[in-house]
Every structure is written in structure tokens, then in C-alpha cells.
Amino acid sequence: MTKKHETQIKKVLIANRGVPAVRVMHTCRDRRIPTTAVYSTPDRLSYHVLMSDEAVHIGDAPPAESYLNMEKIIDAAKKVGANAIHPGWGFLAENAEFAQMVKDCGLIWIGPPPRVLKAMGDKIEAKRLAMRANVPTIPGITDVKDVQQIKDWMKEEAVEFPIMIKAAAGGGGKGMVKVESEEELPSALNQAKSEAKKAFGDDKLLVEKYIEKGRHIEVQVVADKFGNVYHLYERECTIQRRNQKIIEEAPSPSLNDDLRHEICYTATRLMREIGYETAGTVEFIFDSATKKFYFLEVNTRLQVEHGVTELITGMDIVGLMLDAAEGKEFTFRQSSISPNRWALEVRINAEDPRTFSPSFGSITRLQVPQGPGVRIAQGVYEGADIPPYYDSLFMLIMTSGPDRDGAIAVMDRTLSRNLRIEGVKTLAPLLLSIIRHEAFRRGEFSTRFIEEHMDELVSMFKERDSEDEALKIAKYVARISALGPQDWM
User: Fold this and answer.
1) Distance CA 330, CA 7 (A)
2) Burial of 467 per CB tally in 10 Å (0-12, 13-18, 19+)
3) Residues in contact with 177: Cβ distance below 8 Å, sequence separation at least 6, in sequence order
4) Is the previous residue joined to 251 through a cis bond, with omega within 30 degrees of 0?
5) What range(s) does the Biotin carboxylation domain occupy (predicted)?
6) What is the pLDDT of residue 2?
């Protein structure tokens, strides 16, 4: 029996921009919940501003003055009468202090409890809790101060290079340095410490054994306030550049049914142990050689790649976050969740596909893919600017099919035939090369796939620009001039 919910969300302020803000707006619109956007000065004409019911200017371009300014965001919510805040992903989404401020102001926080955010935001604490829940963890040491400490650990535990130095407060691939030899240790330690301090204001580090040929698998979990914790199966997020994902799929081609059952129930056991609420993801590294998986971290937010899980399960994860925040008990059970599709997602970032250097400017042409089995999450429109101040992601392309080959075929059609973006460089040529690569199609890849195959992938790029269109038109004109009217005219 469903218990009466505690409170009703009447208006949602979305403390974000671009793709995540628009994604949250779609579900709110389905539920007839008004939305408020916040925007910085360069984002005044952004897509998320146009999509919202109303918008509030919160500061200048630097994130510290706008999208990371907690006081301004909460003031904006009060100003417009919003009684709930959804943080999307990135920016303040996993900030325990912000979550507590929202709750202290009497607003509804659409996310996990602040205590969970705080515990899971520290990789060292998260690993300790995982071990307490009997979840396998990667061999390593925490609170690393100097090189000698690392050397002593490696000797005692018989750990060989490579190893990975990580920021304890990290995420998104920042503050992570792979070390191949003893000679690299001093510079790598300094680099990780510097990156951690710059990105998170905290230079606390941990060191772990590096899993060669590792595969990145994460389990989507949803939980309400009544102790109901369910998994929505797993995603494979192995294809990465610079420790950041660019292709995701669900389910994972790495797992058989027994491993799938084990990893999914391990994730729900951990989330139940830590008292999790709303949507979250447990990330694992899977050693394909030994068929063992190890805990990496908990992402205490809506994930960029949640859409592929929605496509294979039919669940609205943002909707479930709203239900949990309102205090509703979930009406479904684990046995009622059964994937019956395969889904693939690629991230369209404004970057040079050869070097991954940012590419900023105006989108002079945008042809958005359509057709069967295609879902688009966009944060821009034709004529919009890609500003240099924020993350380079501006569109997600998702495709689905009855099986993996079907989902890949739709993605091939979508990237090669239906997508046109001009004005900025994007990762699209690289993404197309990857999904056409034989090793990817066979499901044989690791987190090092791009670095191992980069030259080959670049050689597969098919250059195309507006001159191709002009040439095509010129050929038609020449044919008609030479041969006269055609039957098809």
C-alpha cells in the first residue's frame, strides 16, 4: 500500500545549465510542474533559458560567480517562489553544503541526504563504507603524504606498476594520474596533488593498483524514503578519453547473467547499507582477465548516461527522483523491472576529435538526427554560442535496438547520415570511427581503447563540410544544363 507523500513539489528551480537543465525540464513539463532556469551573463540566450517557464540571472561567466554561487541560487528560488531545487549533474550536484543549505531554507532538495553526499564525496570514506558492506575494493592505501609511503605499500603488498594516484575528493577524471614506473612517482604525486587542490580545494590523495585492461561498469540504483532500494541494471562506460566517458551502453557486453546478478545486487546492498535515497550510481572496475569486479565510487546524482537505462527499462529516472523527494513510496518492485532493449549513447562535445582541445564559438548549422530508435538530449540550438567557461558537452545522442548490433546500426546511421554540426569542431568523427571499429563491435575493449587505437581511429575520419553540399548542388546544375529536364523533375 502506498503511503501518503509528505509534500508536493510546486515549482522546481534547476541549478544547472545546458543538457542537464533541459533534461530535468522535460520531466517537469510532463508532470505540469513549472520550472525556473538560472543563467550567467553569456548564457542569457541559452537553450535551457528558452525551455524554462521563467529564468533568473545569477551572475557573470565564471562559475564561482554564477552556477557555483550557492547563495544566489537559493535567493533566486525564494524570489520566484520555487519550493524545490534539482541540481542536475556537475556544478553543485554532489555538494553536501549546498544540499544542507537548501534544506535549511525549507526547500525540497531533489537528491540524496547531505550526510550521504558528504560520505560518498570522500573516496577514502566511501571505500571504507564499501569494505564494511563486504563489497570488493581495489588494493590500495589512503591519505597518501609522500613517495616513500607508496613504495613501502607496494613492497609489503607485492603490488607492481602501473598504479593510479587519485584525488580523495575527486570525480570526472580530475586529479587522477597513472604511474608506470618508480621514476615517475615524485612528479606524478605532485601533479595529482596540484590538480586535486585546483579542482576540489582538497589535496588529499589515495593510491590504488591499476587494473590493466579494466572495464568500467556502473549500476543504476533508485531508492525511496521507506527503505526500498532497487537496481535498474548496469551500464558499460569503458570507452573514455582522459578518464572521462564518451560512449556508454546498456546492458554491458562484458557480463554474463550470473555476473550481472552479482554486481547489481552488490550495488543495492551497498546503497542500502549507507541509507541512500533518490537516484544514484555505484561504479565498478571490472577485470576482464580474472572476471572480478572492484568498487570505484558512488555517484550521488543523476548521471549523464542515465538515458540509456531509461531506454532499456522504460523508467523515468528524473521522475523517480521527484517521487523520492516528495516522500512517495515506489509502487514497483525489483521483479517488475526487466530490460528488453539495447541502448547506446555518445557524447557530442565541442572538442577537436584529434587532440581533444576545446572548440568554442557559434553553431552556424545544426541538423539534429531523427528517425526510428533515436533519442536526443540537446543543450543548444542552431545559432547558439558554445562559451569557453563551461563543460564542452552540448548534446547526447542515444539509439536503441532489439540487440547490440541493432543499437550500433542505428547509431551509425545517426552519426554518418543525419547529424550535421558546423561552426565548432566536435567528437562526432571519432565517435563514428569507434562504433565502426571491429574490436568495439566484438565487445573487445578496455579503458585504454582510445589511446591504443587513436592513430587508426583518426585515419578512419571522413572529412565533410559545407563545400561538399555546394559540390553536390553544382553537379545537379551541370547535369540539368547538359541533359535538359529529367524524369524526376
Assistant:
1) 15
2) exposed
3) 164, 165, 188, 189, 191, 192, 195
4) yes
5) 8-455
6) 47
**Domain range list for the chain:** 12-110, 139-209, 214-466
Half-sphere exposure of 439 (CA within 13 A, CB side): 15
Predicted TM-score of the model (pTM): 0.88
**Cα angle: 46, vertex 393, 215; to 5 degrees:** 155
Return the residue matching grid coordinates 520566484.
Answer: 80
Tell me the three state secondary structure of residue 402: coil
The CATH number of 214-466 is 3.30.470.20
Of 90, 53, 23, which is closest to residue 38 (Cα–Cα)? 53
R_g (Cα) of the chain, nearest Å: 23
Residue 256, burial from CB neighbour count under 10 angstroms (0-12, 13-18, 19+)? exposed
| Residue-level pLDDT at 213 | 82
Q: Please say whether the beta carbons of 43 and 62 come within 8 A.
A: no
Tell me, yes or no, if 301 is annotated catalytic.
yes
Residues across the chain: 489
Residue 334 has what DSSP assignment?
G
Measured between alpha carbons, how far is 399 from 78 in angstroms, rounded to an integer? Answer: 39
429 upstream amide cis, omega within 30 of 0? no
Catalytic-role residue among 301, 347, 375, 420: 301
Q: Which fold has domain 12-110?
A: Rossmann fold (3.40.50)
Question: Quick one: 139-209 is in which CATH superfamily?
Answer: ATP-grasp fold, A domain (3.30.1490.20)
pLDDT at 358: 95
DSSP percent split of the chain into helix, strand, coil, nearest 5: 40, 25, 35
